[in-house]
């Protein structure tokens, strides 16, 4: 098995590889959220319906989750450098296809291509970082990798909002092309090939059935409201595919000794509880962004660049709290940090319930700061909880499980908040508009009320209904985190430092 660098490699070569790997990590993460603030421009150009907006994020994340699971096997079979550079080429292709899309379906398909290519980039970037650095710096490199990933997600809306406002929305994807080229060329010149001497078998049946179950569930949630649920044949097909996929996966897990999620993983209580909490973390992390920017742009009439800037404090607080919590010595009990971080997230979402059309930017920034700080405390504490009692041999699979749970938590979270948003908007609109009749309005009007004025009043009612519906979704996110807080009490105590 060859090493990652030739024996005569220079320190500059290692630094170049590390910089390129961190840039690739940032690049694949920032593309998750970079369309967030630019959505009004994208919707206007592609005639994208409001209930299709969630696909912009969930298509990318779901495709990434599938390919991430198989990244290490591909690297062992075909070579890490080959797989890494192929992913970069396909990622660049996805960026180009994003800018060439003329319909919402084409754009979503381009995001799927881009997301599928991003899946291997994150885990392989981490593996490259760890092998390019001495063992004494592994903890620091892992922290840098995590920071780059979170910075990407946090700064995406600000970058996307500014670029789309002044240079058009295709520019948010154009800027990724030179970064991709830099990473590709750096790895081509400095990274040596590495592949396993013996290619291990991979459980494609298990991955396929699990993915079919999750994607079927996601499509059911995304499309159900538009197609009137089980009145549509498509919804029946998606529901059947989801049930069949999960059924086959469960049977497969119970009847085979080895699969892509090893049975030994489910014997560690801390890992299972951490996986559930990681799902809730993902349920809150991205859906909050997916709700906040449209609320600021469409309901409060902020420019798209301003809505992007207003997400920056959340990202700064998240990264700052993560770094500080990561510096806490390992012998310190992680559970108070876990409890404190979750409490901060719940409190921040409770503050979001006070949003109103009459507010200025301060409540959004304050709630974002608190939520970011809470999430930053939870992430490293959750990692200590998950791996503190896990057999070191199982840590790669455990890390994959945690990452999958967070990614699927985000996709399901986005689908759920979109679903309830449109359902609540219709319900609140019906409740407010039932009194909006020509006779009732005319009885209280000092001037004659015609159809144009009634239409304007209906628009005001729709605006109020959408505002109430958005705020209700923050309540769902608050309860998603609230219900997992008691799980902290069931975590095993950390092992004494040895």
Automatic annotation (TrEMBL):
UniProt subcellular location: Membrane
Annotated GO CC locations: membrane
Membrane-crossing residue ranges in chain numbering: 55-75, 87-106, 112-130, 142-163, 169-190, 202-221, 227-250, 271-291, 311-330, 337-356, 368-387, 407-423, 474-491
Residue ranges occupied by any Major facilitator superfamily (MFS) profile domain in the UniProt entry: 17-496
Top-rank taxon: Bacteria
GO molecular function: transmembrane transporter activity
Keyword Transmembrane helix: yes
Keywords assigned: Membrane, Transmembrane, Transmembrane helix, Transport
UniProt keyword Phosphoprotein present: no
CDD domains: MFS_LmrB_MDR_like
Classification via Gene3D superfamilies: MFS general substrate transporter like domains (1.20.1250.20)
Topology term for the membrane: Multi-pass membrane protein
Entries under PANTHER family matching the protein: MAJOR FACILITATOR SUPERFAMILY MULTIDRUG TRANSPORTER MFSC (PTHR42718:SF9)
Protein name: DHA2 family multidrug resistance protein
Organism: Bradyrhizobium stylosanthis
């Amino acid at each position: 098995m060859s090493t990652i660098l030739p024996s005569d490699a220079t320190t500059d070569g290692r630094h170049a590889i590390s910089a390129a790997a961190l840039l690739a990590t940032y690049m694949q993460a920032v593309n998750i959220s970079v369309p967030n603030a630019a959505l009004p421009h994208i919707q206007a150009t592609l005639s994208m319906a409001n209930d299709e907006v969630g696909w912009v994020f969930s298509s990318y994340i779901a495709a990434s989750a599938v390919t991430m699971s198989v990244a290490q096997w591909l690297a062992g079979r075909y070579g890490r450098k080959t797989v890494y550079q192929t992913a970069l080429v396909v990622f660049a292709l996805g960026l180009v296809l994003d800018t060439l899309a003329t319909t919402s379906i084409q754009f979503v398909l381009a995001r799927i291509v881009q997301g599928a290519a991003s899946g291997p980039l994150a885990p392989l970037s981490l593996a490259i970082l760890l092998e390019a650095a001495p063992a004494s710096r592994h903890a620091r490199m892992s922290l840098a990798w995590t920071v780059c990933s979170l910075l990407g997600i946090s700064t995406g809306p600000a970058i996307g909002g500014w670029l789309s406002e002044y240079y058009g929305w295709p520019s948010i994807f154009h800027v990724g092309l030179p970064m991709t080229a830099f990473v590709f060329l750096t790895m081509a010149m400095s990274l040596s090939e590495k592949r396993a001497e013996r290619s291990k078998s991979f459980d494609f049946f298990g991955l396929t059935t699990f993915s079919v179950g999750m994607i079927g569930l996601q499509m059911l949630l995304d499309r159900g409201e538009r197609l009137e649920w089980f009145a549509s044949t498509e919804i029946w097909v998606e529901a059947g595919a989801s049930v069949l996929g999960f059924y086959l996966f469960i049977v497969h897990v119970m009847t085979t000794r080895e699969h892509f999620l090893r049975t030994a993983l489910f014997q560690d209580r801390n890992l299972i509880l951490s996986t559930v909490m990681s799902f809730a973390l993902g349920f809150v992390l991205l859906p909050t962004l997916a709700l906040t920017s449209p609320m600021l742009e469409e309901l409060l009439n902020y420019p798209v660049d301003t809505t992007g800037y207003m997400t920056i404090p959340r990202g700064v607080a998240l990264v700052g709290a993560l770094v500080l919590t990561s510096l806490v010595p390992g012998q310190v009990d992680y559970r108070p940090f876990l409890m404190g971080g979750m409490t901060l997230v719940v409190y921040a979402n409770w503050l979001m319930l006070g949003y109103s059309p009459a507010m200025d930017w301060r409540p959004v920034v304050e709630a974002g700061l608190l939520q970011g700080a809470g999430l930053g405390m939870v992430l490293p504490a959750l990692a200590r909880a998950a791996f503190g009692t896990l057999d070191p041999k199982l840590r790669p699979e455990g890390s994959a499980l945690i990452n999958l749970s967070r990614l699927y938590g985000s996709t399901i979270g986005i689908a759920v908040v979109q679903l309830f948003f449109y359902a609540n908007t219709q319900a609140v609109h019906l409740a407010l508009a039932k009194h909006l009749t020509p006779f009732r309005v005319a009885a209280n009007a000092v001037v004659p009320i015609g159809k144009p004025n009634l239409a304007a009043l209906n628009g005001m009612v729709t605006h109020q209904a959408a505002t109430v519906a958005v705020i209700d979704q923050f309540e769902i996110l608050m309860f998603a985190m609230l219900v997992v807080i008691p799980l902290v009490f069931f975590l095993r105590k950390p092992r004494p430092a040895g």
